[in-house]
Amino acid sequence: MPNANVVLGNDGINDLSGSAGRDLIYGFDPNGAQGNVGSITATRVATGLTGALYATAAPGDSGRLFVVQQNGTVRIVDLVTGQLLPTPFLTANVDANGERGLLGLAFDPDYATNGFVYAYMTVTTGGAHNEIVRYHVNPANPNTVDGMTTVMSLGNLSSATNHNGGWIGFGPDGYLYAAVGDNANGNNAQTAANLFGKIVRIDVHADAFPADPNKNYAIPSDNMFVGTVGAAAEIFALGLRNPFRDSFDRGTGEFYIADVGASSWEEIDIGRGGRLHAALRRQRLGCDRPDVADPYRRRRHLVPDLVRRGCQGQSLHRHQWRRRVPADAGGGLGRPGRPVARPWRRRHDVWRLGQRSPRWRHR
User: Fold this and answer.
1) What is the pLDDT of residue 1?
2) pLDDT score recorded for residue 300
3) Residues 2 and 100 in one domain
4) pTM for this structure?
5) What confidence category does residue 277 fall into, taking pLDDT thresholds of 50, 70 and 90?
6) Do 210 and 130 belong to one domain?
7) How far apart are CA 124 and CA 94, in angstroms?
8) Looking at the structure, do residues 106 and 46 belong to the same domain, yes or no?
9) pLDDT the model gives residue 2
10) Residue 326: pLDDT above 50?
11) Nearest to 121 by CA among 101, 136, 91, 138
């Protein structure tokens, strides 16, 4: 966040106030001793979930946690009572084979006013394909939705059930970003003719296709292939394999893309519009091109997490990369149908993380 006033807390209990301008508030000093801890603790906050792979909250809502399940349901954890609400927030008819299913959820930045929430899912109507849909919260019951509209289709799938991507989220520019896997075909990522192996960016607050009921969005004018014949103008960046979990840094606006490797290496890229994220393919490309982006991090067998800043659980402001180790079977808070790292996840549970200190809990 450029030209921001930085406000720092410490390892005690602080009342922190911002200024009349732009503020970046840390509940701790990131350069202090409390910014470097040797361990974290995990507190279970919900049980009874199946194939839970993502958790998020609505803007300004600190009392509810929305948990995405691969089978097509979103459940609400009431963080005040600690109860898992019996009625799902939404239920969708999805194809949940392999790594397909209900894969992502994003609340509109203006959710408090318009009640819009977006989901990324695999459906079979008209042939198996991934699509982004928009739901509207039920005005009579904010714990349920009451209507759905298709925003866009991401292309018909082959028989392969892996590499579907699935993350969606709003960037600081107000546009909706979606991470689309290569449908188990690396050649898809290298062509601009389809949306597989790409980061897609669209404007969901406008409609440039009023005659098409299944295309309810507009295309940002600075997307990389706007005006290019034969190329998909929705593409923001390409050359990715299965960018399943991604994140915007709330402090800087930086975009981090966690891309899945094959058998040995995974990588985290800094998302740049107009870039080919193919650094691990440089040897095959045989060139040193300025439009080919180097990865920010390479690691063996990562399961990426969000970029976290501030609030409590202060050490977690740093970028979290977790080694993938054998875990209990099932989906969970990682790639669908794949093992994830302990202690961030236990089967059918949601955990809250914090330092080993009674003063701090990551909420």
Assistant:
1) 55
2) 44
3) no
4) 0.73
5) low
6) yes
7) 7
8) yes
9) 62
10) no
11) 101
* DSSP-derived secondary structure for 291-344: TBPPPSEEESSEEEEEE--SSSSGGGGSEEEEE----SSS--SSSTTS---TTT
Q: Are 224 and 271 part of one and the same domain?
A: yes
Q: Are residues 32 and 117 in the same domain?
A: no
User: Can you list the alpha helix ranges (DSSP code H) found in the chain?
Assistant: 111-114, 186-189, 282-285
Do the domain assignments include residue 361? Answer: no
pLDDT recorded at residue 268: 84
Same domain for 14 and 72? no
Query: Are 240 and 264 part of one and the same domain?
Result: yes
Do you find a cis peptide bond into 336, omega within 30 degrees of 0?
no
**Looking at the domain assignment, is residue 362 inside a domain?**
no
Distance in angstroms (rounded) separating the CA atoms of residues 313 and 315 = 6
DSSP for 281-293 reads GHHHHTS--TTBP
Residue 257: phi and psi, rounded to 5, are: -115, 120
What CATH number is associated with residue 239? 2.120.10.30
Res 40: pLDDT: 67
pLDDT computed for residue 63 by the predictor: 94
Q: What is the mean pLDDT of the chain?
A: 78
- The answer to whether the CB of 63 falls within 8 A of the CB of 46 is no
Query: How far apart are alpha carbons 182 and 282 in whole angstroms?
Result: 18
**DSSP strand pairing (73-78 vs 83-84):** antiparallel
d(CA 318, CA 268): 14
Q: Is the pLDDT of residue 347 over 70?
A: no
pLDDT for position 222 = 93
How many domains does the chain fold into? 2
Residue 179 binned pLDDT confidence (cut-offs 50, 70, 90) = very high
Domain that holds residue 157: 39-355
Instruction: Please say whether the beta carbons of 321 and 338 come within 8 A.
Output: no
Answer yes or no: are the C-beta atoms of 93 and 101 closer than 8 Å. Answer: no
